[in-house]
Design a protein that fits this description.
The complex is a heterodimer. Chain A is α/β, with parallel strands linked by helices. In chain A, 39% of the residues lie in helices and 22% in strands. The two termini of chain B are 21 Å apart. Classes of the chains: A alpha/beta, B alpha/beta. Chains A and B meet through helix 1 and helix 2 of A and helix 1 and helix 2 of B.
């Protein structure tokens, strides 16, 4: 990666490599600006298990206190638990210290607004505006607010889920579950969470909460072979993988088959639609299988730009029963945020009610094969190439929400600019076959390369 | 108004305008880097203690983040009196420490003080190295997996501190007297361990201003005017002595059994009287150039020797070590014993010495005070705009050709019957004048004359 682009100041967060760009002074200053942005009041602070978390936590707390905020420090806590707590405790906002699925040397500050949702683009630009103003002094000694600690916030989150799920049915199903906690927040909380949901036997992997990841933390197939094996050896009913801050979720079936992040959301989504038929909010990058499920249940999909903040807003705006994005399920009954805990609970309830195996449920789902290609490309050229591509495919009425989405019968493609690197991402789904998806992705790549060469 | 002081005595300033989380992170990073380089250790262990001021929590978080980011691990002393932290850093063999707390500074201020592995404040030369790193702004930054961790200081540190405190006095003698005392902790950190001291020394203690709120009930400098609350209850309680501590317990002023509030200048001479009693001649006592002549006379009476150096706790402690002195202190009410393992001014230490003196002589504090050769001290501030203050001071050098003159630290002029010391204030746009003369009338008259002469020179 370009050595000059090692700090990402992006959607709802600032992220960088600790010891290089992400220094305590930067974190403290952003936290102080955030304190100013939310207008003082109470701010919740939480972190995942990364070794740099304690350092950044203290930096963030000092910045928030300097801005006149009252601070509640929650210690190690899943991102969704913090988002919920901000709302339930009527806080002014929250900061989570986690680089989520990014490698262990990274860390990030994620900014949560008073509704418990990630800051939107507009909110984020207001925060930058404050950050970039010349400093006009911090509060004086006489105005300091308290720093308190709260260790119960996961419990509150879990109770909200437990009370909505039929734990008796899950208990009756005698389920055996393997879970990969990725040495993250799950290592602290997940075993007990599943036990209380009624899971009979739990096999936890990577359950040392030290942030030293035994495998790359993205919840994708190549990182989850150990989980797959654990499911097979112990004859589990299913396997769950969490990312380090507990928002993303991947499903493994009883044979050890690892579903893609896209397909992992289908069972929990189906369960929500069974409980409360209705419309759904989903990012433009969500599998077409979900749209089929929603349409079959008589609802409609409201597409949004990629990013949890956008889906959350669509849920509130359109009063949808569910939100979805590649690697996450959003169940607004608990909170409009991506949450691996609600995803696991809904999956288990579906398993218990259907009395079917995971693979059997999945066989009934609409099936799409996907392909993903990444092309290095600077931001400006990427935008121009996307415009050219949209023009060429005008007959398919492309969607322009985020990059361009082109639906062509049994195949659809999304071409968009990456948020985290200088690249174009080509995502293709085909109802026909994997080879078909890959072929079409290659075609798009060739067309884009040609356009870029001509520029 | 001057807002920030950075030097051997740490980083001190008005919170929010000058002393911010940013400077605290930078100071901690510089201290961590200096410690790592000096001790050739990749991951030093640093003790952190705070007082109770409301901004101390913010500064603590900032300091911890700076230290962790530079690979240091933390031993957290929580709210702890500074002498206990000085002691603890040494006792636990830590690589350094940071004291966070305003001590005697007025409301609105706070301070960070770096400690070396000896538990003492950095010496002048150590501080210079550390400040070069601070100003260079390049630090010993740790990689993502080398950030330090935090653990709590063991409870036993406070117990060991109290044992150490008692080892320098005849504790059984003090116990046998069952003194009734009043202590005022200015809502600072002193009360967290005082109960243990009182119980083990068999003191019948009445404690006031012992909440940990950090709200100042009076001027935090131990001075006669801060002693009003203690003074008011001494008589009804029939107390033997009153002790008014600074909020970090470094300094202490005394109130006698007859309700006289002794100037904070007299704490040190009384401690010296006790230390020098029964020792042979030739013992050395270290102080600064603006402490009372009472001290010189007390020391002379015991055939000891006074060494004088720059004003400030760190300089005075350095001087004690350099001159192999048995005791050091100054006119602020702070003293430190060389025999004690605490490496800073220790108000509890002063208290124990004075109680021992009362017990040994079998007499009251008022009687001891009346035996001191007394001078009348006048302290004044003379307004002087900040930018001109150093130039103005230089112009004053030739003011009194008839006096013995020293400019070791500020300007000191000595005459047969008294002396005057003038230096720029470190916190305000003014000159600080201390003057001591044999009688009140003479002192007040001299003060008036000198102030008008100084104002004329400063006004030019």
């Amino acid at each position: 990666m370009n050595q000059f682009r090692r700090l990402m100041v992006g959607i709802s967060s600032i992220r960088g490599v600790v010891g290089e760009r992400l220094q305590p002074s930067l974190a403290a200053d952003f936290a102080a600006s955030f304190g100013g942005y939310v207008g003082k009041g109470t701010v919740l602070v939480a972190r995942d298990t990364r070794p740099s978390g304690v350092m950044l936590e203290h930096a963030v707390i000092s910045g928030l206190l300097s801005a006149g905020c009252k601070v509640i420090s929650a210690g190690v806590l899943p991102t969704p638990s913090l988002q919920l707590a901000v709302k339930e405790h009527s806080c002014s906002g929250g900061i989570v210290i986690t680089a989520s699925q990014h490698p262990q040397e990274y860390n990030a500050l994620k900014f949560i607004n008073r509704d418990g949702m990630y800051l939107s683009d507009q909110e984020m630009s207001a925060l930058f505006d404050i950050y970039n103003q010349p400093e006009d002094g911090f509060i004086r000694e006489s105005s300091y607010q308290s720093l308190t600690y709260n260790q119960d916030l996961f419990e509150e989150h879990a109770k909200k889920i437990w009370s909505r799920i039929d734990t008796a049915a899950i208990r009756a199903a005698n389920l055996k579950i393997a879970v990969d906690c990725c040495n993250g927040v799950g290592a602290v909380y997940t075993k007990r969470f599943l036990k209380n949901l009624g899971v009979d036997e739990i096999f936890a992997l990577n359950e040392t909460p030290d942030g030293i990841f035994k495998h790359s933390p993205e919840t994708v197939e190549e990182n989850l072979s150990e989980l797959s094996e654990c499911v097979r050896t112990n004859q589990c009913d299913a396997g769950f993988a969490q990312d380090p801050d507990g928002d993303s979720f991947t499903l493994v079936d009883e044979t050890g088959h690892i579903y893609s992040e896209q397909n992992s959301i289908l069972i929990p989504c189906k369960r929500v639609l069974e409980r409360t038929p209705g419309s759904v909010s989903a990012s433009i990058q969500t599998t077409a299988a979900l749209e089929e499920l929603v349409c079959a249940a008589g609802g409609k999909v409201f597409y949004t730009k990629v990013g949890e903040a956008n889906i959350g807003r669509s849920i509130l705006q359109n009063n949808t029963v569910l939100g979805a994005e590649g690697c996450g399920v959003i169940w607004p009954e608990v909170h409009p945020c991506r949450d691996s805990y609600t995803a696991m609970a809904l999956t288990l309830e579906k398993l218990a009610y259907s009395k079917l195996k995971v693979s059997e449920i999945m066989r009934e789902m609409p099936e799409y094969h996907s392909a993903l290609l990444t092309m290095p490309c600077n931001a400006q050229s990427a935008e121009e190439a996307i415009r050219a591509l949209a023009h060429a495919y005008e007959r398919f009425h492309p969607e322009h929400l985020d990059g361009v989405r082109i639906s062509m019968g049994k195949v659809w493609a999304l071409v968009r600019k990456s948020y985290s690197e200088s690249a174009l991402k080509i995502y293709v789904e085909s109802a026909v076959s994997k080879a078909d998806a890959e072929g079409i992705a290659e075609t798009f790549r060739a067309e884009l390369e040609k356009t870029l060469a001509e520029m | 108004m001057r807002f920030l002081r950075l030097g051997a005595a740490g980083l001190r300033g008005e919170v929010g305008t000058a002393l911010t989380h940013q400077l605290a992170i930078r100071y901690a990073s510089a201290l961590a880097t200096w410690t790592a380089v000096t001790l050739k250790k990749n991951a030093p262990v640093i003790g952190v203690a705070t007082d109770t001021r409301t901004s101390s929590g913010m500064l603590k978080s900032a300091v911890i983040s700076g230290l962790l980011a530079c690979g240091c691990s933390i031993v957290d002393f929580g709210i702890t009196p500074s002498p206990v932290c000085h002691f603890g850093v040494k006792k636990l063999k830590l690589d350094g420490g940071v004291l966070i707390g305003a001590g005697h500074h007025p409301a609105g201020w706070n301070a960070l003080v770096g400690l070396s592995s000896s538990g003492a404040c950095l010496t002048a030369s150590e501080a210079q190295e550390m400040l070069e790193i601070y100003h260079g702004n390049v630090f010993h930054t740790a990689a993502w997996n080398e950030c330090g961790t935090i653990r709590q200081a063991p409870e036993t540190v406070a117990f060991d501190y109290v044992d150490d405190l008692f080892s320098s006095v005849d504790i059984d003698l003090i116990r046998s007297r069952n003194f009734r005392i009043v202590t005022d902790f200015c809502n600072g950190s002193g009360s967290v361990i005082f109960n243990r001291i009182a119980r083990k020394a068999n003191l019948d203690a009445v404690v006031i201003n012992d909440s940990l709120s950090g709200e100042l009930p009076h001027d935090p400098e131990p001075r006669p005017r801060s002693s009003a609350q203690v003074k008011a209850i001494m008589k009804p309680l029939k107390a033997d002595a009153g002790f008014v501590f600074s909020s970090d317990v470094g300094r202490v002023a005394l109130v006698t059994d007859t309700c006289e509030t002794l100037s904070e200048e007299y704490t040190f001479p009384l401690v010296a009287e006790n230390i020098l009693s029964g020792t042979g001649p030739g013992k050395v006592i270290a102080t600064n150039t603006c402490s009372t002549r009472t001290l010189d006379q007390v020391v002379a009476r015991h055939c000891g020797k006074v060494c004088k150096g720059m004003t400030g706790e760190t300089y005075t402690i350095d001087l004690m070590n350099e001159k192999n002195a048995v005791l050091c202190g100054d006119g602020s009410g702070g003293t430190a014993l060389s025999a004690s393992s605490s490496a800073g001014f220790d108000g509890f230490g002063s208290m124990m010495q004075i109680l021992e003196l009362m017990a040994r002589r079998e007499t009251s504090l008022s009687a001891l005070a009346s035996m001191l050769p007394r001078y009348h001290i006048v302290k004044r501030t003379i307004p002087c705009r900040s930018v001109h203050v150093y130039a103005a001071t230089n112009k004053l050098i030739k003011l009194f050709p008839d006096a013995e003159f020293s400019n070791l630290d500020g300007l000191r002029f000595d005459w047969e019957d008294g002396w005057v010391h003038i230096r720029p204030s470190r916190t305000e746009p003014s000159l600080r004048m201390i003057l001591e003369w044999k009688t009140r009338a003479a002192a007040e008259e001299k003060a008036m004359n000198i102030i008008s002469m100084v104002e004329r020179v400063v006004g030019e």
